[in-house]
Amino acid sequence: MKIKSAEFVVSNSKVEQCPNSSLPEYAFIGRSNVGKSSLINMLTGRKSLAKTSAKPGKTQLINHFLINSNWHLVDLPGYGYAQVSKSTKKVFQKFITAYFEQRKQLVCAFVLIDSRHQPQAIDMEFMQWLGENTIPFCIIFTKTDKLKLKELEKNIENYKAEMLKTWEEMPEFFITSAAKNTGGEAILDYIENINKQLNKN
Ligand code: GDP
User: Fold this and answer.
1) Which of 100, 140, 156, 191 holds its CA 20 to 30 A away from the CA of 73?
2) Ligand 1 centroid distance, CA of 7 (Å)
3) H or E element: which one contains 132?
4) pTM over the 0.85 mark
5) What SUPFAM superfamilies does its record include (predicted)?
């Protein structure tokens, strides 16, 4: 897919206020600093469509971008566990779970994972939560330029092994580097194929 246009639409803190539109949407999410803004800028070919390296703790917003006038790219804030009083149960921030539970237009979530790290509990738990809520998702490994090829292969194998402890199969995954501008086309083609299928129905 070629990106012909990419426009900011709106930022919200509530799913109820997200655009009233029937366009398919694809959400990008991960822990803060995973490289999400850089990836979105790479995908859209815009230097600063998503803001890179904003300070942690900034207002957490659901950002909608209109791509090629026919789908929405949604930039979600970094996830973390919400503080729940009188309980040690870990839950994700409410407006993030509300987005996934309520947003009918959502076609697929892209969960970003820093390729340098060992599997982290919070990412695993978030994907588990998506699975339990039957929300389709893919994994995007980021910052792969920071690793030697052998290390990258080892980390991906390791990740797969960890995923296969809970999942029957490894979800679709993509290997990217915003610094080297690699891996974006495969993601855009994946989205384009789904959009084509949706248009046929
Ligand atoms: P976000 O908080 O998830 O939106 O992450 P950012 O896109 O702001 O990136 C966090 C930091 O990682 C910044 O210093 C980026 O320059 C750096 N970064 C992001 N993507 C890459 C990448 O592909 N390669 C390298 N080497 N650094 C990256």
Assistant:
1) 156
2) 21
3) helix 121-132
4) yes
5) P-loop containing nucleoside triphosphate hydrolases
